[in-house]
Specification:
Layout: E1 3-4, E2 13-14, H1 21-29, E3 37-40, H2 48-54, E4 59-62, H3 66-75, E5 82-85, E6 88-89, E7 96-101, H4 117-120, E8 128-135, H5 137-147, E9 157-160, H6 166-171, E10 182-188, H7 199-208, E11 211-219, E12 222-229
Parallel strand pairs: 3-4, 3-9, 4-5, 6-8, 9-10
Antiparallel strand pairs: 1-2, 7-8, 10-12, 11-12
Length: about 240
């Protein structure tokens, strides 16, 4: 697969198919997350089978919208170590926001107002809004810890699919990031939602948090990126 270095000293960005970040990590590093997974924006649980196959527990799946959340609960019913939480994660808590519900089964829904998305995917409409109250990922997981016996290093794998609001979620996850080694998130070049974070800004932001980009797959103006904690694995060529 072709690769290039985005900045001096940065791990290569590998352009190629990435069926799932967990598969990529296992294939290239022969290990993966050990102390738990958190997925913010889990929708109805489309990736639950991947998480089951990974064998890592606990798995916390967070979804703000009532419809997809009800399906998520049904999807993981009876599965040990899986915790569904209905919440809207943000940089700050106790903020009332309008969540813009997308017509594609909620997959493109966001509390950020759609802008360029309306032209980039004209078949997707946003005809409904749902009023929700935000929380932070740090607060949400702290509350979960009070209810359950979770590993001290939980979580070490974080997935974010929050339609442009990924940086806002991370700003409310400073404590959570202390144990995280892997971050897989949806990215874009920006402009799909009002106030969203573009790819290059996200790379700079996560470098400041101690993460390098290891894999990037773009489809038109959006895609998926895998970030891994700096120094977790030896540099390439050594």
């Amino acid at each position: 697969m072709p690769a290039y270095c985005a900045q001096p000293g940065m791990a290569p960005i590998v352009l190629g198919p990435m069926t799932h970040a967990l598969d990529y990590i296992r294939a290239h590093f022969r290990e993966g997350p050990r102390s738990g997974i958190v997925h913010v924006g889990a929708s109805s649980g489309q990736e639950v089978e991947d998480y089951k196959a990974a064998g890592t527990r606990p798995v916390v799946l967070i979804e703000p919208l009532p419809g997809p959340y009800a399906q998520l609960v049904e999807t993981i019913a009876g599965e040990p170590g899986f915790y569904p939480l209905q919440a809207c994660c943000d940089a700050v808590g106790n903020r009332d926001v309008d969540f813009h519900v997308a017509s594609n089964d909620g997959m493109s829904s966001s509390y950020l107002r759609p802008s360029g998305h309306l032209a980039a995917a004209a078949s997707v409409t946003f005809d409904e809004t749902v009023r929700v109250t935000t929380t932070t990922l740090d607060a949400l997981l702290a509350d979960l810890r009070r209810q359950h016996d979770l590993p001290a290093a939980f979580p070490d794998y974080l997935t974010l699919d929050t339609q442009g609001a990924e940086k806002e979620v991370l700003l409310g996850a400073r404590e959570t990031l202390r144990t995280v080694n892997y971050i897989w998130l949806e990215v874009s070049f920006g402009g799909l939602y009002e106030g969203d974070t573009g790819l290059y800004e996200m790379i700079d932001f996560l470098r400041g948090q101690g993460f390098d980009i290891y894999n990037l797959v773009m489809m038109r103006s959006w895609g998926d990126a895998l970030f891994i904690r700096s120094g977790l694995f030896p540099p390439l060529g050594r």
